[in-house]
Amino acid sequence: MRFEVTIDDVKIGLWRSCRGLRADFKPDVVRVTGDYVGQYYLPGVVSYAPIVLERAVHKETSQQLQQWLMGVLESWKDGTGDAKRSTARITVLDADNEEAGSWLLYGVRPSSWSGPDLSADSNQVAVERLELVHEGFFELPTKANTASLASKDNKQNKVTFSYNPSKMGISRSTRSAQMIGEKGVEFASDTALRVKAGEVLLVGAGVAQDVQKLIEFSGPPVSDATRQAGEDILLPPLTFNWGELSMAVNLSRLDVNLTRFAADGMPIRALAALDLMVIGGEIFPKSTAARPRARQVHTDPAEWKRRAKGDGIDDPMRAQARGASAGTRR
């Protein structure tokens, strides 16, 4: 059998081997106190192994592959890659050159390419190797709502995150701590509700403008006179939105790491950590939906006799009449 690969209608030829058609579901393990002979599983994050292709070097198809790789390099200069997610199809051909099966890969990008090891002392076939990464075997029907941080006074002054944070932390402390006040060391409690959003990713040509907006959201510079006078720092009111989540906040701390730059020195990728202080409203909207039922563990129905005997019930159907009034018993 042979393997034919096409990426965005660009044929990159036949290959002799294909490895990595695999999906790892990676369920999260939950261990419960009292259950020491097993564990439970919750849905985790699905990941996909790289696709590794190998073949002998061919004059025509190897040149087509090089042209495709050069096009990918051009699209990577802006730090985001091509706006359109590439789609690849791997087709298995039988001995009669007919399709025996195929797989679609979405969000395909090259991970590595290696050419043959050339030596005049060897008569081995010149082999090239291509490794592809992809986002899955099916296209997601909808994308998750993107979080944003905007000025409450000017809704147009907004930063929309390219990707949502993977985790968010909620913290509040009512414990008294030492603070420096007008009369020296004082004990006070900071009961503010804080939401920490770490690893917020900004990508694209507008990263510099977004970072500048975040700096403005964190408040004006504080002078030495303001510090000495002990005056309160007025932070601009902001609105943090993420789908149905909406809360009034102040940006009390900002950390930004610029991780990629364009040729002119402008940042095109940044990783930010936001410490938000909730100043009004609730973090989560009130829901009228019914709460989910507690987890039920279903066992073998044939176990009912043993369980009934252990509970001292000679007729399990009598357990349904427990607690019923005398008039309703039969």
Oligomeric category:
single chain
Q: Mean pLDDT across all residues, rounded?
A: 81
Name the structural class. Answer: mainly beta
Radius of gyration, CA atoms, in whole angstroms: 30 Å
Sheet with the most strands: spatial strand order: 14-13-19-20-21-18-15
Low-confidence stretches: 321-330
| Tally of helical segments | 4
In total, the number of strands is 21
**Cα separation of the termini:** 71 Å
Helical fraction: 10-25%
Largest sheet, in brief, is: 7 strands, antiparallel
Overall, the morphology is flat
SSE blueprint and pairings:
Layout (H helix, E strand, L loop, with lengths): L1 E6 L2 E6 L1 E3 L3 E2 L3 E3 L9 E3 L4 E2 L2 E6 L2 H17 L11 E7 L5 E8 L2 E6 L12 E7 L14 E4 L6 E3 L6 E5 L4 E6 L2 E6 L3 E11 L3 H11 L6 H6 L8 E5 L2 E17 L5 E14 L23 H7 L20
Antiparallel strand pairs: 1-2, 1-9, 3-8, 4-7, 5-6, 8-12, 9-10, 11-12, 13-14, 13-19, 15-18, 16-17, 18-21, 19-20, 20-21
Provide a descriptive summary of the structure in words.
- The protein has 330 residues and is mostly beta strands.
- The protein has four helices and 21 strands.
- The chain has a seven-stranded antiparallel β-sheet with strand order 14-13-19-20-21-18-15, covered by helices on one side.
- The model is unreliable at 321-330 (pLDDT under 50).
